[in-house]
């Protein structure tokens, strides 16, 4: 009869060490991290906020009164049309909150500016930060 050989404690420990080393090597590449560069974070915050405004508009048919409406648990009763005129909003169409917190500019630390584009009538968002980015454009034009 053949003898079945088991693993020694040294072999088991070496497998555990190799497994931990493999997890430690690949874990930082898989985990979600926000960009560390303030300009990259500003681009991400602007894109996320613009997307939330568009989703709010497509859900409800109106723009939010201000950016805090994107974070509201309860639906607001009034929104803005394309030319910044107040309109009554149907609360049944509200599927929010669209953001977890009111967005802030990572460069200046202030809340993003929410304004009406006079040419198209769309509500837009921009950074309140003064200065020029690494691409040569002012932060307010991003």
Structure characterization notes:
With 142 residues, the chain is an alpha+beta fold. The chain has one domain (38-141). It has two helices and four strands; from the N terminus they run ααββββ. The strands form two sheets. Strands 1-2 form a two-stranded antiparallel ribbon. It has a two-stranded antiparallel sheet with strand order 3-4. Strand 1 and strand 2 form a beta hairpin. The longest helix has 23 residues, at 38-60.
Task: Jot down its keywords.
4 strands, alpha+beta, 32% helix, two-stranded antiparallel ribbon, elongated, 142 residues
Quick description:
With 142 residues, the chain is of the alpha+beta class. The chain contains two helices and four strands, in the order ααββββ. A two-stranded antiparallel ribbon has the order 1-2.
Fold topology:
Blueprint lengths: L8 H22 L7 H23 L17 E3 L5 E3 L24 E4 L6 E4 L16
Antiparallel strand pairs: 1-2, 3-4
Helical fraction equals: 25-40%
Which spans have pLDDT < 50 for at least 5 consecutive residues? none
With strands numbered from the N-terminus, the spatial order across the biggest sheet is 1-2
* Residue-averaged pLDDT: 83
Q: What share of residues are in beta strands?
A: 5-15%
Helix/strand class: alpha+beta
The number of strands is 4
The backbone outline, from C-alpha atoms, is: elongated
Count of runs of 4 or more consecutive helical residues: 2
Number of structural domains? 1
Gyration radius from CA atoms, angstroms = 25 Å
Order of helices and strands: HHEEEE
The N- and C-terminal alpha carbons lie at a distance of 78 Å
Characterize the main sheet.
2 strands, antiparallel
């Amino acid at each position: 009869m053949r003898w079945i050989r088991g693993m020694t404690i040294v072999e088991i420990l070496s497998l555990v060490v190799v497994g931990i080393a493999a997890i430690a090597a690949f874990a930082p590449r898989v985990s979600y991290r926000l960009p560390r560069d303030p300009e990259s974070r500003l681009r991400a915050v602007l894109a996320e906020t613009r997307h939330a405004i568009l989703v709010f508009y497509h859900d409800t048919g109106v723009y939010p009164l201000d950016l805090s409406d994107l974070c509201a648990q309860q639906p607001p009763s009034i929104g803005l049309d394309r030319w910044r005129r107040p309109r009554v909003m149907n609360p049944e169409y509200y599927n929010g909150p669209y953001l977890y917190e009111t967005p802030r500019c990572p460069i200046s630390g202030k809340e993003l500016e929410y304004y009406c584009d006079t040419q198209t009538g769309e509500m837009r968002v921009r950074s309140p930060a003064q200065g020029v980015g690494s691409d040569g454009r002012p932060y307010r034009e991003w």
